[in-house]
TrEMBL record:
This is Helix-turn-helix domain-containing protein. Residues 6-66 form the HTH tetR-type domain. It comes from the Bacteria. Residues 29-48 bind DNA. Keywords: DNA-binding, Transcription, Transcription regulation.
């Protein structure tokens, strides 16, 4: 009878997500992962197969958590209010391992290496963009945004603004709160 693992896989993926988010793919060694996960090399490979496989799981966890948070906000506040709240919330998230978007950081880091994980991160960014477009469509249906606007174009711009905001929040001397307020205010003119 095979021995059952003595760890919670989801918790380990969450820990891995946080170290990858802070340090990036190249900046995180197998030794770093073994230390943060409290696993020996054999156990690590048995549980995850490879660093790349664990990184992909971490990316998916990051994206799934963001999607769930966005949907919960939309259910509670409605589409337009969520789009206005979200910029402030992403930079005020005290539980976040870093301010900058893990998906965007991955695309920037791994595209130059022609690494398949850059493609996966880009696909997850496109899924997030589609969720934002869905919120813009809902806001149009609610009468909060004019029908003349293209929800997909609004979503692309909004996501770009969020990525820029999150990078700005990592920098010293930048008032990220003011930028978040400007993004929210810009939605009043739609």
């Amino acid at each position: 009878m095979p021995r059952r693992p003595s760890y919670d896989r989801d918790t380990l993926i969450e820990r891995a997500r946080d170290i990858f988010w802070r340090q990036g793919w190249a900046g995180t060694s197998l030794k770093d992962l073994e230390a943060v996960l409290n696993m020996k090399p054999g156990s690590f490979y048995a549980a995850f197969g490879s660093k790349d496989a664990l990184f992909e799981l971490a990316l998916e966890k990051y994206a799934a958590d963001g999607a769930a948070r966005l949907e919960a906000l939309a259910e509670e506040h409605g589409a337009l209010a969520t789009l206005k709240l979200y910029p402030r919330l992403v930079i005020e998230n005290g539980a976040a391992a870093a301010k900058a978007c893990m998906l965007a950081k991955t695309v920037l880091e791994l595209t130059a290496r022609e690494h398949a994980l850059a493609d996966r991160a880009n696909a997850l960014l496109l899924e997030a963009e589609a969720r934002f477009a869905g919120l813009f469509r809902r806001a149009q249906s609610d009468g909060d945004i004019l029908e003349s606007h293209d929800p997909q174009a609004l979503a692309r711009r909004y996501q770009s603004d969020l990525i820029g905001l999150r990078i700005s929040a990592e920098r010293d001397g930048v008032d990220a709160q003011a930028i978040a307020a400007e993004i929210a205010e810009s939605l009043n003119r739609l």
